[in-house]
Amino acid sequence: MAEISSDVRPTPGWRFESELWNEGFATVAGVDEAGRGAWAGPVVVGVVVLPVAVHPFVDSKTVAAPRRASLAAEVRARALAWAIVEADAGEVDAIGVLNATLAAAERGVRALAGHAIAVAELGRRADPPIDALVTDYLRLPTQRWGDWDGPRGIRHPARADALSYQVAAASLLAKTHRDDVMRAAAVRWPEYGFERHKGYGAPEHRSALARVGPCAWHRRTFRPVAALAPRRGLDRSEESTCQTPSV
């Protein structure tokens, strides 16, 4: 059997959603996140419901920033429902980055179901309500959502952001929103270069941490930050004096 070249990019489609529809679920949403591995700033989760069609949406990591912005605008124009949710550095430090990501995803789905949940951005709500999800290997604990009538169906394949239009769309919203947030943070804390590395572990970021220590938006439980936080930088108790950057 001939080998498939690793250079061939997967084509997004509706495979996973179709599996869920065939099981009897009606409204399936795509979910993806941005920023889990960053040292600073929020984890951002996008939740998207698209009409069944061929869409131009692709994994946000495969396109340059101007194209990502254009595609994210197209997601908002085409989507039947969408939400963008943040889990800030304090939440990440309090419960861990994975749990913060899961909590943000649940808040997004709840907001789209009509619950009074604070989110960064809320588009049209899902009608009928979302009853199943496709995620990029994010194992949302849907079986534990017993206190509200949330989704019960889920698919969480690896590389879903390259294989599902809806997960790709969610990745575009999450990535572009987070980039905007980090550019705004760079105005408040220009010494870190957030507008260039977006809070990830770039050499420039590591050098700034060594020089001035962490700021209020750094994740103190992440090892490179924790190594410097006791000696330098702003304590969590001082964060109320800082203005949260707005997009």
Biggest sheet strand order reads 4-3-2-1-5-6
Give the helix/strand class. alpha/beta
The residue fraction in helices comes out at 25-40%
- CATH-assigned homologous superfamily of the largest domain: Ribonuclease H-like superfamily/Ribonuclease H
| CATH C-level name of the largest domain | Alpha Beta
| CATH architecture assignment of the largest domain | 2-Layer Sandwich
Number of domains: 2
Please describe the topology of this protein.
Layout: H1 15-22, E1 28-34, E2 43-49, H2 65-78, E3 81-87, H3 89-95, H4 97-112, E4 121-122, E5 132-135, E6 153-155, H5 160-163, H6 165-188, H7 194-197, H8 203-212, H9 223-226
Parallel strand pairs: 1-5, 5-6
Antiparallel strand pairs: 1-2, 2-3, 3-4
Helix pairs in contact: 2-6, 3-4
